[in-house]
Write a structure and sequence with these properties.
Blueprint: E1 3-4, E2 11-22, E3 26-29, H1 30-34, H2 41-48, E4 52-55, H3 62-81, E5 88-92, H4 104-110, E6 117-121, H5 127-140, E7 146-154, H6 164-167, E8 172-182, E9 190-197, E10 205-207, H7 212-215, H8 223-226, E11 228-230, H9 232-254, E12 263-266, H10 271-281, H11 292-295, H12 302-312, E13 321-328, E14 332-339, E15 354-355
Parallel strand pairs: 3-15, 5-6, 5-7, 12-13
Antiparallel strand pairs: 1-2, 2-8, 3-4, 7-8, 9-14, 10-11, 13-14
Helix pairs in contact: 3-4, 9-10
The structure holds coenzyme A.
The site of coenzyme A has 21 residues, from helix 2, helix 6, helix 9 and strand 13.
């Protein structure tokens, strides 16, 4: 997709110039979970590939992680582009600090950016790709020259800690990028895009209570309705199909072949899904960037966290061609292409892990 800035005939693209990831310091291993749930390390690893995840401390919220990632992404942008100025802050999240207002204005204010445009995007685990498209649109429309996009989620605040099917999958974290106006042909340019949804399957991934539907009904919501619910097997099937279709649609729009992709960076749902999608696309698994083993599924944070991890490990190099693909509740899905820029220096990732105290994940009240 080549966008043209409003009032100009020159093609314009959003260009990546800053990147960072952040996770909370409390690590929860599979063994930690097995001490309080009827599960074990072998089951979790075989079904999901996950070894450990990070979770927030009681009292920490999504914005706390978003601010940490955002601050580091702005520093990264300063190092690579000579300025940390941004005109807009977009936060992709399913676990906003509050039902109202959005989390982005508070994050912007805490980053010293009060006054800029700030809003949330909720496309569940596809949120970061939807956020990239939103940021690219702001830049193409001439609304902003530079955008800070943060994917941040704290699933530990909505997953029932006693629900073994979901507690094993999700972790908390935040990843952030800075995008600036540039040319579609320069390294760092984001696009082409493919975005889609199918709300007929909204019940496959849902927190039933807390919104206007439940609030308009009499009576208190049940414990189950206040927590995250997922029909895992069906989600698995939809995820593989939709991610592969979306990846193909994006490659076709750009005129790329699968062999043109140096790194496939999927939403880190679980390892089996990622490998199934790579196999479906005919892409060697070595080209599939995976980070889910050490952080779990971190929702809207997962793609920028995987990028930050790969960038810190120098497994992605300048000029490499990336295909990003995500899938999430809604249902939603989306993909986009990205040519990797040259980052002058890259901050180490993630935060040093601190083993969890026992019990590992105290029951936290679900958000209303
Ligand atoms: N430990 C041990 N056993 C568990 C368990 C756990 N943590 N969670 C579920 N089980 C049990 C079930 O109760 C069931 O037992 P039963 O056969 O006696 O009824 C058995 O394991 C199989 O459960 P099932 O749900 O069929 O397992 P599965 O093979 O489908 O794996 C998921 C479950 C969640 C790992 C899998 O469905 C999945 O990966 N889904 C996609 C989830 C995802 O990535 N979502 C994010 C998309 S953005």
């Amino acid at each position: 997709m080549s966008l043209t800035a409003a009032g100009s005939s020159a093609p314009v693209a959003a260009v990546l110039c800053g990147l960072a990831g952040w996770v909370p310091s409390r690590v929860v291993t599979n063994e930690d979970l097995a001490r309080r749930l009827d599960t074990d390390d072998a089951w979790i690893r075989t079904r999901t590939g996950i070894r450990q995840r990070y979770v927030v401390e009681p009292g920490q919220a999504t914005s706390d992680l978003a601010v940490e990632a955002g601050r580091r992404a702005l520093a990264s942008a300063l190092a690579s582009s000579g300025t940390d100025r941004v005109d807009a802050v977009v936060v992709a999240t399913t676990t906003a600090d509050h039902t109202c207002p959005a989390t982005a204005p508070a994050v912007a204010a805490r980053l010293g950016l009060a006054g800029v445009a700030a809003f949330d995007v909720n496309a569940v685990c596809t949120g970061f790709v939807y956020g990239l498209a939103s940021a690219a649109g702001l830049i193409a429309a001439g609304v902003a020259d530079r955008v800070l996009l943060i994917g941040a989620d704290t699933y530990s605040t909505i997953v029932d800690p006693l629900d073994r099917a979901n507690a094993i999958i999700f972790g908390d974290g935040a990843g952030a990028v800075v995008l600036r106006a540039g040319h579609p042909d320069e390294p760092g340019a984001v696009g082409h895009f493919d975005l889609g949804s199918d709300g007929a399957h909204e019940d496959l991934i849902m927190v039933a209570a807390g919104g206007s539907r439940q609030r308009s009904l009499p009576g208190a919501p049940s414990r189950q309705d206040r927590h995250f619910a997922m029909r895992g097997k069906e989600v698995y099937r939809h995820a593989v199909t939709r991610m592969a279709e979306s990846a193909r649609a994006t490659l076709s729009r750009a005129g790329w072949k699968i062999d043109d992709v140096d790194h496939f960076v999927p939403h880190q749902a679980n390892l089996r899904i990622l490998h199934s999608v790579a196999d479906d696309l005919g892409l060697p698994r070595e080209r599939c960037v995976t980070h889910v083993e050490s952080v779990g599924n971190t929702g809207a944070a997962s793609i920028p966290l995987a990028l930050a991890d790969a960038a810190a490990g120098r497994t992605i190099g300048p000029g490499d061609r990336l295909l990003l693909t995500a899938f999430g509740g809604g249902l939603t899905w989306g993909s986009c292409l990205l040519t990797w820029p040259a980052f002058p220096e890259f901050p180490a990732f993630p935060a040093p892990a601190r083993p969890a105290a026992q019990p590992t994940q105290p029951a936290q009240p679900a958000r209303p």
